[in-house]
Amino acid sequence: VTGQDAEKASVQYVIDGKQSMTVFKDVRTLVKDAISTAVAFLKGETPKAPGTENNGKIDVPATESAVVTVSKDNVKAALIDSGYYTAADFKGLE
After folding, report:
1. Residues contacting residue 83 through CB under 8 Å, at least 6 positions apart
2. pTM of the model
3. Which of 40, 57, 68, 90 has the fewest beta carbons under 10 Å from its own?
4. What is the pLDDT of residues 22-40, one digit of tens each?
């Protein structure tokens, strides 16, 4: 069983061994990118997009976000040490 978004319940399942992994996309980064894009549009500017993604017809400007596979082995490094969650949010986290 796998998951996405590293929600607290999902992370607890990973810690408990009930789920093998969850995919983490740091919403703090996603929000920052979305806000800077919206502000650029409001100012009539072209948003900064350091990369592109092909949609099957053209290359579309894009900002890629880091995606982290969170397993029992890296829960602490990926989610606690980054400040996304605290260790107190979970039981059995060593």
Report:
1. none
2. 0.81
3. 57
4. 999 999 999 999 999 999 9
How far apart are alpha carbons 92 and 94 in whole angstroms? 6
Distance CA 76, CA 14 (A): 12
Instruction: State how far the Cα of 83 lies from the Cα of 18, in Å rounded to an integer.
Output: 24
Mean pLDDT in residue range 45-51: 92
3-state secondary structure the chain: CEEECCCHHHHHHHHHCCCCEEEECCHHHHHHHHHHHHHHHHCCCCCCCCEEEECCCCEEEECCCCCEEECCCCHHHHHHCCCCCCHHHCCCCC
